Amino acid sequence: MANKIAKFIVGLFGSITSLWYGKYLVMFVISLLPILELRGGLIAAKLMNAPMVPSFMVCFLGNIIPIPFILWFITKIFTYLKNKSKKLGKLVIKLENKANSKKAQIERLKYLGLVLFVGIPLPGTGAWTGCLIASMLGMDKKKSALAAIGGVVMAGIIMLIFSYGVLGVIID
Predict the structure, then answer these.
(1) How many whole angstroms separate alpha carbon 31 and alpha carbon 45?
(2) 121 — phi, psi (to 5°)?
(3) Better-predicted residue by pLDDT, 168 or 58
(4) pLDDT (tens digit, 9 = 90+) per residue, 7-36?
(5) How many helices (H) and strands (E) does the chain have?
(6) Does residue 57 sit in helix, strand or coil?
(7) Cα separation of 114 and 118, whole Å?
(8) What is the DSSP letter of 33?
(9) Do 57 and 83 reside in the same domain of the chain?
(10) Domain limits at 130?
(11) Whole-model pTM?
């Protein structure tokens, strides 16, 4: 699924990729987005034939930028949205339920669980969801940020192997 979405976004911004920074801007934006994150950014990087190391650095930065904002502000934002609007409140409740359904994976192992949750690139896992769960569990924000960053590095290495190894053989 991430492959299809990444292909769509690369196609959508195809003209910008002709600029010297265009490919990096596309993968940075993809890496900022929930669901796709670094995983989608690295797939897009390979689809655009971008070099591996700079692509990893750009995707890594794009994926870690939201971490402190999620950890420090998401519960306040969710509370505000639930009180402000019925439609947004329903969306927030849906997101909280999704996070609650996955929190046992983190709750048991604490920070190691957070590293593994963020680091194993499966649907519904990643820095966004991991940090939301850590915030909902009241985990230490600094330790959670470090654990999430460690997970992003782990996911990045796995996705480099997939994107530039396995997927690279299929695409080339």
Answers:
(1) 11
(2) -75, 85
(3) 58
(4) 676 666 666 766 778 899 999 999 999 889
(5) 10, 0
(6) helix
(7) 6
(8) S
(9) no
(10) 66-153
(11) 0.84
